[in-house]
Amino acid sequence: MATASENLTIVVVGASGDLARKKVIPALFGLYCQGFLPTKFRIFGFARTAMTSEEFRARAVENLTCRYVPGESCAQKMDEFLARCFYVQGPYASRDSFLDLFQAMQAEEGDEPADRLFYLAIPPSVFLDVSRAIGDAGLVQCGDRRPWSRVVVEKPFGRDRASSDALVAQLGHVFTEGQTYRIDHYLGKEVIQNLLVLRFANLIFEPIWNREHVQSVQISWQEDIGTAGRGGYFDSYGIIRDVVQNHLLQIVALTAMEPPQSLNAQHIRDAKVAVLRSVPPVSRDQIVVGQYARTVRDGFDLPGYRDDSGVEDDSITPTFAQVLLHVRNPRWEGIPFLLHAGKAMDEKKTEVRIRFKNVPGNMFCSEGTCPAPNELVICIQPDEGIQLRVANKVPGLGMTLEQQSLDLNYHAAFNRVIPQAYEALLLDALRGDKGLFVRDDELSAAWDIFTPILKELESHRAIPEPYAIGSTGPDAAQRLRRAVQESV
Ligand code: NDP
Ligand code: BG6
Question: What is the bridge-based pairing of β-strands 287-293 and 320-326?
Fold first, then answer.
């Protein structure tokens, strides 16, 4: 299926940056290779860095891959794609620089009206300046009808509830809510999209997906690298704003929500908002924060977070957070949702772990030891898959039980390329499908959960507990985890 546009211009603001280069442009190439872009399309990179279109193409090509067109035709596809990439340089808060962009766009768009997608791949501090300048330069076409204009805005969207509301209102002067696509790229990840299918297209899970049968839900997000040069950005946001308030809460919402009325974007987002609104704000005893410290390992001196360029020597920005959430509704009352997110940890992994209760009166318990409870493990990355941990008899003449996995591994099961999250989301934005984008009330509900604790941690200058690079996080986090497990 091609996108509805016949004539399409995509503007990537912040085109000199990491996200544009590594994710957005390669995702657009992926869509081009699969025939999802119309015959008449063009991509304009825009940023302050001085660069010619030729130099922009030379940078872009470094991150394009032949996943969809292996073999010799790939080089030809790349050449065709790059020929439609252009670059315009200018300051962000300037109407004139966007007028220059407008002129360059019109020269390529021809006489037919073109749909326009603006992708703001820039730090949140400049979202507003850029949007205003785009609006002042007359680049935004009004209304939902053709030719349309849409804006994709990256996260983090604001720093707390108040700044997020203000940003929503101010951006709303340029782009309507209908034209605004707030991206959370985790929603484009294949296994996360599959959560709806797993829960609602299979008979077996929904009857046990509740407080009667589930003991706890754990959502883990960890990276085995530190802030790696992004310290300047990270230090003013921290792990709660960077990952927990958005990526992890979206996973909570999809895991805990009631069945939506239909697959319609509005119904899915209504169901997510309802569950987020039933999560009370996090209090101090529900959170542990940490920061990775300089670590000596195998004779190597590994720089800590505070050694990253752009990070203050006395920074108290957390690079790790463990949070206990309660979902106060009839389905989940009393069931702990334990979230943890950390940089520079022992491994790269994102997963949802649903632990079920023990079998009541289990006849296989012996001398006080019972078989481990069932667990459903949804592996989001790096190895996409789903495992159901079940008790099983070890083959042999005795009755010994062992927990084993019923294992779905995506790469083994599906002989196909798994799309990148940004491909899925860009395609939806081009089609005008908002189901995987964050609505304004969803954003507010997510900020309400974390705004009070962020204020408390910051106003009291709470010192994050140091942890070693390559570890499982601060000791206090292990203690909170144990306390939660013992309490259920
Ligand atoms: P970068 O720091 O690479 O910034 C992108 C571009 O914005 C830079 O090339 C620079 O372009 C311009 N820029 C940088 N700092 C400033 C500043 N202080 N004032 C004005 N312009 C500035 O960011 P990323 O590309 O990593 O991220 C862009 C957005 O995407 C952010 O909101 C980030 O949170 C989000 N994001 C990033 C991800 C990633 O993987 N990188 C993943 C998910 C979200 P120039 O100087 O040429 O104008
Ligand atoms: C971004 C965060 O949103 O997600 C980064 O800003 C993080 O800090 C990144 O590294 C992780 O994305 P992915 O898709 O590599 O898991």
Answer: antiparallel
- Whether the model pTM is above 0.85: yes
User: For ligand 1, is residue 375 a contact (CB within 6 Å)?
Assistant: no
The closest of 325, 323, 273, 328 to 445, measured between CA atoms, is 273
| CA dihedral of 341, 121, 60, 71, whole degrees rounded to 10 | 60
**242 Cβ closer than 6 Å to some ligand 2 atom:** yes
pLDDT above 90: residue 348: yes
* Ligand 1 close to Cβ of residue 121 (< 6 A): yes
pLDDT at 145 over 50: yes
- Give the tokens for residue 219: 């959502």
| 3 band by pLDDT with thresholds 50, 70 and 90 | low
Tell which one of 18, 125, 128 to mutate to probe ligand 1, the residue whose CB is within 8 A of the most ligand atoms: 18
Q: Which amino acid is at 105?
A: M
Provide the b/e sequence for 217-233 (b: ≥16 CB within 10 Å): bbbbbbbeebbeebbeb
Active site residue 185: no
pLDDT at 2 over 80: no
* Other Cβ atoms closer than 10 A to 100: 15
Q: Which residue has a Cα nearest atom 15 of ligand 2? A: 223
Whole-number Cα distances in Å, 368 to 311, 475, 482, 485, 486: 51, 29, 20, 18, 16
Testing ligand 2's pocket by substitution, the residue of 240, 247, 317, 384 carrying the most ligand atoms inside 8 A of its CB is 247
Identity (one letter) of the amino acid at 367?
E
pLDDT in tens, 77-104: 999 999 999 999 999 999 999 999 999 9
Token output for 74: 């790939």
- C-beta separation of 47 from 89 below 8 A: yes
Percent of the chain with pLDDT over 90: 90
- Cα separation values, 132 from 104, 118, 223, 440, Å: 19, 13, 36, 19
Q: Which tokens is 360 given?
A: 């009541």
